[in-house]
Specification:
single chain; 289 residues; mainly alpha; MetI-like fold; 2 domains; 12 helices; 0% strand; MetI-like_sf; cell membrane; ABC transporter permease; transport; transmembrane
């Protein structure tokens, strides 16, 4: 029976691989069919991984404490929705979103100030590179000591992790315009603010959104890791560390699945906003073509 399950999973994987290869090489006349094919390829690939995972675990009788099958993780996930929602609300809705907004917002504002001050540019950017290299496992305990065990200390960790990527990318984006473009704005008698809003800031949007996408994943990682060092009895990081000690690995994987879905959705939302705001950029126009 176990060998049959493994064989069925392998056969499904081979069939799905062949179908995906056919979808990738096929050119559809309808734009809607082309979009559906682009969506179907990663979805089918993900389903294939889950089926192969299930068949491998059951076929080789891998203990669930080492690697639970997806069916077991799904059962735990659907049976623990109130707990998972409370953890999600504590970690993502409070710590991640608040810290993300504060860190990215402060990084953007300080980048504007640095652009106006060569002194800050020479003094703060090297310090930013130093702080951004600090490990989160070293910063998190200090933030817990400063701000307490609740979500405020996790927000502080997220702010530190997201501030400097936004700062560095925004400064680089503001410097991306050429001297010829700035000279053209001066010939129109544009002052610094007009040049910033009409020329330099639009040119910096791809850099800014690059930082926003990077920070969407850094914020979630930082909040979860920070919860390992002290938190109320709720939160995704708290649940992972606690359930690992209890050998409830299926619950750990359920939390990981929720974090992965939340992080992917957050990243996708930022990328969607980027396509709307930077519709004029060659990379976006090329993708639409």
């Amino acid at each position: 029976m176990k060998l049959a399950v493994l064989l069925a999973a392998v056969l499904f994987w081979l069939a799905a691989w062949a179908f995906n290869e056919w979808l990738v090489r096929r050119r559809f006349a309808s734009p809607a069919a082309e979009r559906a094919a682009r969506i179907a390829v990663p979805l089918l690939f993900g389903v294939t991984i889950l089926v192969l995972w299930e068949g491998t675990v059951r076929g080789f009788s891998i203990p669930s404490v080492l690697l639970p099958p997806p069916s077991m993780i799904w059962a735990r996930l659907t049976g623990s929705l109130p707990t998972l929602w409370a953890d999600f609300r504590q970690t993502f809705l409070k710590s991640v979103l608040t810290g993300y907004a504060l860190g990215c917002g402060l990084g953007f504002v300080v980048a504007i100030l640095i652009d106006r001050s060569p002194f800050l540019q020479k003094g703060l950017l090297p310090l930013g590179n130093f702080v951004s290299a600090l490990p989160v496992i070293g910063v998190a305990p200090i933030m817990v000591m400063w701000f307490g065990f609740d979500w405020q200390s996790k927000v502080a960790v997220v702010v530190i992790m997201t501030f400097f990527p936004m700062l560095v990318n925004t400064v680089s984006g503001l410097a991306a315009t050429s001297h010829m473009e700035r000279d053209l704005m001066r010939t129109y008698a544009a002052d610094w603010w007009q040049t910033l809003i009409k020329l330099r800031l639009p040119a910096a949007w791809p850099f800014i959104f690059n930082a926003l996408k990077i920070n969407s994943t850094l914020a979630l990682i930082g909040a979860i890791v920070a919860e390992f060092f002290g938190t109320p009895i709720v939160g995704m990081g708290f649940r992972i560390s606690t359930e690992v000690g209890r050998m409830n690995v299926d619950m750990v994987w359920a939390e990981i699945a929720v974090a992965a879905v939340a992080g992917s959705a957050f990243y996708g939302a930022v990328a969607l906003v980027e396509r709307i705001v930077t519709f004029w950029h060659p990379s976006v126009r090329g993708g639409q073509a």
